[in-house]
Design goal:
heterodimer, A: 278 residues, mainly alpha, MetI-like fold, 2 strands, 75% helix, B: Rossmann fold, OB fold (Dihydrolipoamide Acetyltransferase, E2P), five-stranded antiparallel β-sheet, 8 helices, 26% helix
Chain lengths: 278, 330
């Protein structure tokens, strides 16, 4: 019995606490390019100080938050009608529709992002089509812009929005909407006063599930965003692999963690509350 | 305004291949407590939902208070409904549930508060306005649903199986409560129920439905004492249905038959043997086999206290008068 309980704790210690301690330790070390590994352990806050004083990092933070927030909003606006339609579909059709939402997961995430590169590149499929059809003779290139990053994040994370929204909407008792209508509510007020508040747990869960990973996203900005857009995940990668500045990269990781603890706690409290309610 | 409050003209509705309502004509007068009575799948709920506007008739039309309801959505109808599940908004407290309809109408806040308080007082829920539906008992939830439907003073209140979700004890009291409210407010109630006792005990008039059609309309007394068809005679209460000639039957209620040791002085009499007795305290139900023929059900009040009147296996006489039974042709 004890062994069974101890196992997950052991797992957490080995694969969570230990690495976290390591990263925390590294973030307080100083960079030593001549050593291998290139760190000199110590208790220096230089890396953190640099993070908060250098405009480059601040800009990366802000653009990460901005891109994650707008992508989350777009996911919500696209995902809500999708989830609503699936929840209102006849029960035999729902599994098929949900399957279609989950289907992209069958292909590797990386390959799907590469596919977007092929679509959006200068001589990509989209531009070839535009030229061929005569719609645009000189289309610009989406690849390498912030548009491409938004597109990639929305595409990749939309299922994480749709699924919790569906779960919330599927539980909704539709006779409540009939009651609202019976009491004189037009369709829009009925939606705003009944459907929306009752699906709020799903909205919060979906937004956090998209926002949290999107802030630290690295693959999408690296492959689709080119060099012009700074996102914090990419900065972390560059500091670690290109500049070999392990302490600075670790400091970025720690800050990212602290930044996201708030939303994660919010998410967990929401989950707890919806568990208690049922 | 005079004339019927509800006029249903040749209304039919199908769901795919299933015909739920197959041509119904019905008029309901102002101030009635009208019951639509029938088994599951008889079309009573579909008819009620068409009155509310949740379903659209395939053909025919519904007129409420002189206004043709064709194409009028639920939120514009002068009708409110109490749902079988009550459909209370779980995220709103009782006061906001009851006040929901008034708020949508744009009624001033102070007036909403007053009318909500009055509606809650009407259903004896004073002071519970701040509770959430989840914090209420089943009976209290039912009364919140009623207050919410009444607060807008609809021309027509629709009740979908209003007592079905209550336990037996509560149902008795609520039955009288609903009738009291209906009379006090001088509103027209249309209720749907599968429970004939409920319909008989509450309604001023009722319609018995079967297979999407109305089989008989009348007062509870009419329908019980003069059933139009064998189905109605059998569905409402208990009846002995005796075949008197080809395609001719007689519906005879158990309590209209006398049971005696000797031949009673009634116009009709038959002799038989008691095969079963169900003692119910106030009365007993006897199953009496008439020769090799039918087994008749007879009810007798137990007016004597000291001894049991009859025993199983006794040979007895049954008697009934000329007008005791209702002749049926269908």
């Amino acid at each position: 019995m004890r062994l069974v309980i101890a196992l997950p704790y052991l797992w957490l210690v080995v694969f969570f606490l230990l690495p976290l301690g390591l990263v925390l330790g590294l973030s307080l070390a100083t960079n030593a390019p001549d050593l291998a590994p290139p760190v000199e352990l110590g208790l220096s806050f230089a890396s953190f100080k640099l993070l908060f004083t250098d405009d480059l990092y601040l800009a990366a933070w802000l653009s990460s938050l901005r891109i994650a927030a707008t992508s989350t909003l777009v996911c919500l606006l696209l995902g809500y009608p999708m989830a609503y339609a699936i929840a209102r579909a006849t029960p035999p059709r729902r599994p098929l529709l949900l399957m279609l939402v989950i289907l992209p997961f069958w292909t590797s995430f990386l390959i799907r992002v590469y596919a977007w590169m092929g679509l959006l590149a200068e001589n990509g499929i989209l531009n070839q089509f535009l030229r061929w059809s005569g719609l645009m003779s000189d289309p610009g290139t989406i690849l390498g812009t912030e548009w491409a990053i938004h597109l990639g994040i929305v595409y990749a994370y939309l299922p994480f929005m749709v699924l919790p929204l569906y779960t919330a909407l599927e539980k909704l008792d539709w006779s409540l909407l009939e009651a609202a209508s019976d009491l004189g509510a037009r369709p829009l007020p009925a939606f705003l006063t009944v459907t929306l508040p009752l699906s709020l747990p799903g909205i919060v869960a979906g937004c956090l599930l998209v926002f949290i990973p999107a802030v630290g996203e690295f693959v999408i900005p690296d492959l689709l965003g080119g060099t012009r857009t700074l996102m914090i995940g990419k900065v972390l990668w560059d500091e670690f692999f290109t500049n070999s500045d392990w302490p600075l990269a670790s400091a970025v990781a720690i800050c990212l963690l602290i930044l996201l603890v708030g939303p994660i706690l919010l998410f967990q409290r929401q989950q707890q509350r919806s568990l208690e309610r049922t | 305004m005079s004339g019927p409050i509800v006029k249903i003209d040749g209304v039919a509705k199908s769901f795919g291949a299933v015909q739920a309502v197959a041509g119904v004509d019905l008029e309901i007068a102002r101030g009635e407590l009208f019951a639509l009575l029938g088994g599951s799948g008889c079309g009573k709920t579909t008819l009620l939902r068409m009155l509310a506007g949740f379903e659209t008739p395939d053909s025919g039309r519904i007129v409420i208070d002189g206004q043709d309801m064709t194409g009028v959505p639920p939120h514009l109808r002068p009708v409110n409904m109490m749902f079988q599940s009550y459909a209370l908004f779980p995220h709103l407290d009782v006061a906001n549930n009851v006040g929901y309809g008034l708020k949508r109408e744009g009624v001033a806040k102070t007036e909403i508060a007053e009318r909500v308080a009055a509606a809650l007082a009407l259903v004896k829920l004073d002071g519970l306005g701040a509770r959430r539906p989840a914090q209420l008992s089943g009976g209290q939830r039912q009364r919140v649903a009623l207050a919410r439907a009444l607060v807008k003073r609809p021309k027509l209140l629709l009740l979908d199986e209003p007592l079905a979700a209550l336990d037996r004890k509560l149902r008795e009291g609520t039955r009288f409560e609903l009738v009291r409210l209906q009379e006090q407010l001088e509103l027209t109630f249309v209720m749907v129920t599968h429970d004939q006792e409920e319909a008989m005990g509450m309604a001023s008039r009722l319609a018995v439905m079967k297979d999407g059609r109305i089989v008989q309309t009348g007062t509870p007394h009419d329908v019980y004492e003069r059933p139009a068809t064998r189905f109605v005679a059998d569905f409402i209460g208990v009846a002995n249905i005796l075949q008197t000639a080809p395609r001719r039957w007689l519906a005879l209620r158990p309590e209209k038959i006398v049971l005696a040791a000797n031949r009673p002085a009634t116009a009709h009499a038959a002799t038989g043997k008691i095969v079963d007795i169900a003692y119910e305290g106030d009365r007993s139900l006897y199953r009496v086999a008439i020769g090799n023929g039918p087994v008749m059900l007879v009810a007798q009040m137990n007016t004597e206290r000291v001894r049991e009147s009859h025993r199983r296996g006794d040979a007895v006489w049954l008697g009934w008068s000329d007008d005791a039974g209702q002749p049926l042709e269908e």
